[in-house]
């Protein structure tokens, strides 16, 4: 099952350019991909200095997130992300400063855009997939416009929640798109040790559409997701998109991939860098050049610097905030825990 592709590894267009992609939108896709790459560098540096908690880099997977996100209509569609979808969340309107606070564990980081179409990042593997289906099913029953897009990885696709969600999506004709980013690894477990089958073929078993796509090709990801969205909003049901990509960095900042990733394999994967591929094609088409690149990098760095300033201004969170917003009416057990914490805190001071 060869992955669908529009840009070959050398950055040459092998098919028709998808509808809806003018020069401005293509440049916006490039900027967001550049933001992801440079955000990784900054976030990892902040984590190493003790200013962020665990961070999941997305270098190498920018095209899968950006292409699928740009194919959606953020005015009506809903995003239900896993933990490596920071670019998709930013595309749906999450401020970058808020995202950094979220990775720090600050309560202000939980503040999502008021439009209500962006849902929290999910760390528990595939636990959000059934919620995405329920949300999409409810939208269909109420006659609401739009579709739901739900991202997760190849490791999460082995969880029972993922199978149950896809099966329910098939039964209910829910307008949901599952984007499974097959980056080759579930932390340190290679895909060959996770499954002997092709992930995209699981769609047939649950009665939904399935597509295997080159996840390093931002144009192919856009086209495949746009087709899946059209099918969903026209009543054709759900789609599973397997985005075949590669994780160029660690699983998270708590991981050391040098212990299990073959150096030659990683170097080979770098030759398929989605940023390089897209930049090569954009340049050949006269849509990108050194001047545009430098302007984009300046814009990206300014956004990151503004976000870090906002992050620093928030100050440390009060640990007692963990007791807030848990229950509408505080139960006795939580009240006892709060009292014990406050007593220990007073004793420690």
The count of strands amounts to: 7
* Spatial order of strands in the largest sheet: 1-2-3-7-6
Mind describing the biggest β-sheet?
Answer: 5 strands, parallel
- Quaternary state of this entry equals single chain
At the third CATH level, what is the topology name of the largest domain?
Answer: Rossmann fold
Mean pLDDT: 96
- Unreliable spans are none
How do the helices and strands line up, and which of them pair or pack?
Blueprint (H helix, E strand, L loop, with lengths): L22 H26 L13 H9 L7 E3 L5 H6 L4 H9 L24 H14 L5 E6 L6 H13 L3 E7 L2 E2 L2 E2 L11 H5 L2 E6 L3 H16 L5 E6 L18 H8 L3 H11 L5 H25 L17 H17 L1
Parallel strand pairs: 1-2, 2-3, 3-7, 6-7
Antiparallel strand pairs: 4-5
Helix pairs in contact: 1-2, 1-10, 1-11, 2-8, 4-11, 5-6
Protein architecture, described:
The protein has 349 residues and is an alpha/beta fold. The chain folds into 2 domains: 23-317, Rossmann fold (3-Layer(aba) Sandwich); 319-349. It has helices at 23-48, 62-70, 86-91, 96-104, 129-142, 160-172, 202-206, 218-233, 263-270, 274-284, 290-314, 332-348; strands at residues 78-80, 148-153, 176-182, 185-186, 189-190, 209-214, 239-244. It has a 5-stranded parallel beta sheet with strand order 1-2-3-7-6. Helix 4 (96-104) packs across helix 11 (290-314). It is globular, with a radius of gyration of 21 Å. The termini are far apart. The model has no long low-confidence stretch (mean pLDDT 96).
């Amino acid at each position: 099952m060869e992955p669908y592709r529009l840009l070959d590894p050398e950055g040459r267009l092998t098919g028709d350019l998808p509808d809806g992609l003018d020069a401005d939108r293509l440049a916006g896709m490039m900027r967001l991909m550049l933001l992801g790459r440079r955000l990784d560098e900054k976030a990892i540096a902040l984590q190493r200095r003790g200013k962020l908690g665990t961070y999941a880099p997305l270098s190498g997977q920018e095209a899968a997130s950006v292409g699928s996100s740009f194919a959606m209509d953020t005015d009506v569609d809903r995003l239900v992300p896993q933990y490596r979808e920071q670019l998709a969340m930013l595309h749906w309107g999450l401020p970058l400063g808020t995202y950094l606070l979220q990775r720090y564990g600050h309560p202000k980081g939980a503040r999502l855009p008021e439009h209500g179409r962006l849902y929290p990042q999910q760390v528990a593997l595939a636990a959000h997939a059934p919620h995405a289906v329920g949300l999409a099913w409810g939208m269909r029953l109420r006659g609401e416009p739009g579709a739901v897009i739900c991202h997760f990885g190849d490791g999460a696709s082995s969880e029972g929640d993922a199978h149950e969600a896809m099966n329910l999506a098939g039964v209910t004709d829910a307008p949901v798109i599952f984007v499974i980013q097959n980056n080759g690894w579930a932390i340190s477990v290679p895909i060959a040790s996770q499954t002997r089958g092709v992930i995209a073929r699981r769609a047939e078993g649950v009665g939904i559409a399935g597509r295997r796509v080159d996840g390093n090709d931002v144009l192919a990801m856009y086209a495949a997701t746009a087709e899946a969205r059209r099918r969903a909003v026209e009543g054709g049901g759900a789609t599973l998109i397997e985005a075949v990509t590669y994780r160029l960095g660690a699983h998270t900042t708590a991981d050391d991939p040098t212990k299990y990733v073959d150096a030659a394999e990683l170097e080979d994967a770098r030759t398929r860098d989605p940023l390089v591929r897209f930049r090569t094609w954009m340049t050949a088409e006269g849509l990108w050049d050194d001047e545009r690149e430098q302007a984009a990098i300046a814009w990206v760095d300014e956004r990151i610097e503004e976000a870090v300033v906002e992050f620093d201004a928030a100050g440390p969170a009060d640990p007692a905030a963990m007791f807030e917003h848990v229950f509408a009416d505080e139960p006795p057990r939580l009240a006892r825990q709060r009292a014990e914490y406050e007593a220990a805190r007073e004793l420690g001071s």
